[in-house]
């Protein structure tokens, strides 16, 4: 289990994180037709915590043998955390268009990660140089928007793309935009922090 060093203000405990990981995995397992397990008393108590009833953006990421297997989430809090985790666990497992749906025999090899987001805030900048300088490498989740297109990278993506120029170029391509459009100064950019837990 890991806590993004930039997001301690997200405020969940490791016990709450373990409960959310259990919830995500159990939700996927039940959808695959596996007999449901009852949570142990500590997990059940955590899932009732008021903190997990707050409306927050959530992402669920699935990896298999270290490779991405699905990642779906919401950037803003439209549901309580527990409901968002359940919904996004199902979407990550079965509805990520980049991958085929998860099958039952894969489940044991899949690692689950749950991310809880702070509210995105606009990043104000005047030049591409200022944009690069204001990004906090390894800390910021980044949203870009231009016209009707946009995309986001969670802070965890900095591990694969630690150079801000590469991070932004890949993010632009993910959003269906030219890789270098961030240099134009016309992108809307928002940032957020993440507290994440992994199995």
Automatic annotation (TrEMBL):
Gene3D superfamilies: Hypothetical protein ph0010, domain 1, Hypothetical protein ph0010, domain 2
Domain of life: Bacteria
Domain AMMECR1: 15-199
PANTHER family linked to this entry: AMME SYNDROME CANDIDATE GENE 1 PROTEIN, AMMECR1 HOMOLOG
Name of the molecule in the record: AmmeMemoRadiSam system protein A
Gene source species: Thiovibrio frasassiensis
């Amino acid at each position: 289990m890991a806590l993004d060093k930039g997001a301690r203000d997200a405020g969940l405990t490791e016990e709450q994180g373990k409960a959310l990981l259990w919830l995500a995995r159990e939700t996927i397992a039940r959808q695959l037709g596996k007999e449901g397990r009852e949570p142990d008393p500590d997990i059940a108590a955590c899932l009732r915590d008021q903190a997990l009833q707050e409306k927050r953006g959530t992402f669920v990421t699935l990896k298999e043998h270290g490779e991405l297997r699905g990642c779906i989430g919401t950037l803003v809090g439209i549901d309580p955390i527990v409901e968002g985790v359940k919904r996004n666990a199902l979407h990550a497992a079965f509805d990520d268009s980049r991958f085929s749906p998860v099958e039952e025999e894969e489940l044991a090899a899949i690692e689950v990660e749950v991310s809880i987001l702070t509210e995105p805030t606009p990043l104000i900048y005047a030049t591409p140089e200022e944009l690069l300088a204001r990004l906090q490498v390894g800390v910021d989740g980044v949203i870009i928007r231009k016209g009707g297109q946009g995309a986001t990278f969670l802070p965890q993506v900095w591990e694969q793309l630690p150079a801000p120029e590469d991070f932004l170029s890949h993010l632009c391509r993910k959003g269906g935009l030219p890789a270098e459009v961030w240099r134009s100064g016309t992108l809307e950019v928002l940032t957020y922090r993440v507290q994440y837990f992994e199995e």
